[in-house]
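User: My instructor asked us to take a sequence, write out its structure as C-alpha cells, and then describe one feature of it. I'm not sure where to start. Here is the sequence I was given:
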Amino acid sequence: AENLRLRQVLQFRQRDQVRRVIPAEVIARDPDQLFDKLVVNAGSDLGIQEDWPVVTPDGLVGHVDEVRDHSSVVQLIFGSRVSALVQESRAHGIVSPLAGGNRFELRYAEAANLIEVGNRIVSSGLGGRYPKGITVGYITEVRERERDPLLKEVFLESEVDFWGLEEVFVIHSASDSERPESSP
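Assistant: Let's start with the prediction itself. The C-alpha cells for your sequence are:
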C-alpha cells in the first residue's frame, strides 16, 4: 500500500511541473481533531511561508498556518472557506465545511447554472490563498431551494483522506510582492 501511495505521489509531482511543490511528511496531528491541524516536516529551512497551500494528489488539504525552523503547522480546509467553481459549468461559489467527515457545501451557487452530481469543484484562485484549479471535491448532491429559488443547495465530498494523511505537498505561492495587499 505504501509503495502504491508513493508512486501516486511521484506521478503527482511529475505532473505538476507548472507549480513548485515541496514534499513533506505528516509528523503530528491534532489527536481530537478539535482544531483540525497537523504538523509536517518542512519549515523555514525549506523556504516554507505562511498561507501557502497544502495538497495531495487527491486534492486540497489546507494551508500553512505557522512556520517553524524544521516543521510547519497546517490548517485543514475544515477551518476555512474556499472560493471555488464547478469545473464543468464555471459556476462560482464558496466551499464551506459541514460537520463530520469529508463533506462540504458549495454556497451561493446560482440556480441558473447547470450543476450536476459528479461535477468537479476546483479552487477559483479568487481570494489569493489558493491558486486556481486545485481539486476540492466532487458534487454528491444538488437540491433546489424552496425558500430561495435563485440559489441551489450543492453538496460535495473531498477524496482526500484527511485522517490518514502521511505525505503532502506544499505549493510555493506567489512572492509577497505579487500577493494582493491585505486590508488593515
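For the description part of your assignment, you could build on this observation: Residues 14-18, 175-184 have pLDDT under 50 and may be disordered. Try explaining in your own words what that tells you about the chain.
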